[in-house]
Amino acid sequence: MDWLKLLAIGDTGWGDELLHGLGITLALALTTFPIAILLSFAIHWAKVSKYRVIRVVAHTHTTVFKTLPEILTLLILYYQSQALVNWITGWIVPGSNLSVSPFLAGLIALSLVISAYGSEVVRAALNAIGRGQTEAAKSLGLSPFITFRKVILPQLWRHAIPGFGNLWVILLKDTSLVSIIALSDLLHVATLAINTTREPFFFYLVIGAFYVALVILSTRLQKTLEHRASKGITRMEARDA
Amino acid sequence: MLDLWLNYRDLWLDGVITTASLTVLAIFFGFFLAIPIGVARAKSSGVLGWLALGYVNLFRGMPLLVQLFLVYYGLGQFNSELRAVGLWWIFRDAWYCGLLALVLNTAAYQAEIIRGSLQTIPASVHETNAALNLTRWTAFRRVLLPIAFAKALPAIGNEFILLLKATSLVAIITVFDLMGQARFIFSETLDLRVY
């Protein structure tokens, strides 16, 4: 069939370009996710801080990035970060004209949005563990940092997997928005292919299948991680913890 | 900044009306589409169950932008076939295409919500229905659906908010909702404060 020829790898077909776009999509998602997780912990830590200013900043961050549509956040950040970077470097080297790559703008925007939801995941996971563990660690004389690293974090992991797994799927789908700012991710490559071959239904269906496959793989991986993290935890313990 | 509001007052109002109407209509039609799919997911283990599972996975797995493009550009490719069937009036207009894509998308999410609320109805309710000798259709219509709807209402409220944000994407296929008006005014004034 004619259509399989369109997907050929090499010069005659679009297969290799689509795979390249898939690579960019995965690269963006895989670099954004760890940053978003770190930011989630930071935002949650700020929300329970004893200084009111820090609390207000964290709550504002969450409210703003949960209410704005992701595409609006992305567009504002892309255009404004360019202006901001030029303004800052204008103090150091007047007349400089740096540009912010779409990849970086997408990275910043998506990590800010995902961390807004991620801070809630961290809060729920910490609530599920309870204060007893921190109190016990403090009575043993462990420093706060060691407590977090060796006592809280291993237990938090099990409760956080469903929430963060969900956010990973949301992140995968939101990376398609960066095609609007001309980063050649999967959707953008498909649009280019369509502009030359005039077969929109076929190509959009193909990348739709790519995305669905990615999501199915991710949910499988999430279930495996949940299963492994719950090893040795009986149902009675799971109900209490 | 106020001049950006006042000069383009009519356009902003148009945008708000478009966004609001798209959201309300999409939630409404999506709910009625989601009920059979949710029931099929909750109860059927045969072909219907698999079809419903495929539909939900397809429309929750694809980004909304891809679904919008698929309906607008993809189905627009078949304009001669659609004209012959007489359905071209839907796919010619970007507003209808956006509405169709939003309805299909939100129906998938609402079907999962309805499935969850149907499956958490306690067994005692089912036993009571059997003891009262209600037919399956009456039991569903009079007992199960109201209980499930009450349970699902908070989650559907959440979905309403998410849908409101998602309608901003239809600006990409040239529907002039709030986001679309912002892009249009930006193209005229080149003033970033519009966003």
Q: Could you explain how this protein is built, in words?
A:
Chain A has 241 residues and is mainly α. Helix content of chain A is 80%, strand content 0%. Chain A has helices spanning 2-6, 15-47, 52-67, 70-92, 102-129, 132-139, 144-174, 186-197, 200-229, 235-240. The longest helix of chain A is centred in the N-terminal third of the chain and has 33 residues, at 15-47. In chain A, 31% of the residues are buried. The model of chain A has no long low-confidence stretch (mean pLDDT 86). Chain B has helices at 2-7, 9-43, 47-61, 64-76, 79-85, 88-92, 94-119, 123-131, 136-166, 178-189. In chain B, 82% of the residues lie in helices and 0% in strands. With 195 residues, chain B is mainly α. The interface between A and B is medium-sized, with 33 and 27 residues.
Strand content of the residues of chain B, in percent?
A: under 5%
Order of helices and strands of chain B: HHHHHHHHHH
What is the tally of helical segments of chain B?
A: 10
Structural class of chain A: mainly alpha
Distance between the termini of chain B: 11 Å
Q: What oligomeric arrangement do these chains adopt?
A: heterodimer
* Sheet of most strands of chain A: none
User: So how many helices of chain A?
Assistant: 10
Enumerate the spans of chain B where pLDDT stays under 50 for 5 or more consecutive residues. none
The unreliable regions of chain A are none
Fraction of residues in H or I helices of chain A: over 70%
- Count of strand segments of chain B: 0
- Kindly estimate the percentage of residues of chain A that lie in beta strands according to DSSP: under 5%
Number of strands of chain A: 0
Summarize the largest interface: chains and residue counts: A-B, 33 and 27 residues
Using only CA atoms, what is the Rg of chain B?
21 Å
